Amino acid sequence: MSAARLFFGLAGALRLAEHASAAPAHLRRPGRPFPGTPALRLVVETVPGLRPVAYLLSCGVPFLARHDGTPVALYADRTPEMPDGLPGQPHEVIDLNQLSSAGTITGRPLPIASGWYLPLHPPGQQSQLDFLRAAADAGYGHVSIDAGDLTLAVAKRRHRPLQPC
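Now predict its structure.
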């Protein structure tokens, strides 16, 4: 089966990337890839029986936060029903069921969050930050991430399929 393609608003993705690139430090758990480098973090949360939720975060520290202190997250326009084609080895996995004795909140299972890092300045490759800046300057409105190999592409506009009411 082909990999999932996730679409995000380019302005929001660029804001997160600019924050990560300008931050004096970058969040990495011990033993994770790309230590000390600016990156975006792609997170996919899955709960059995529900559609996965995908979002981007900045790895910059101090965190990019809203007025109430919660991190700024950029949610995908739409996430495929099944996480088919996601990279096989997440850089980190957080099973929230392991953090709760009952494994549920209000009777619902807790999500499992799988995370991947997308370095903004990968060695020997084009800067992803420069790519996003150029796309925004050229009038593109969306960035897509091929979840199979974590590559970025841009689109002028995102055509959403009709959703049942």
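The two ends are 28 Å apart (CA to CA).
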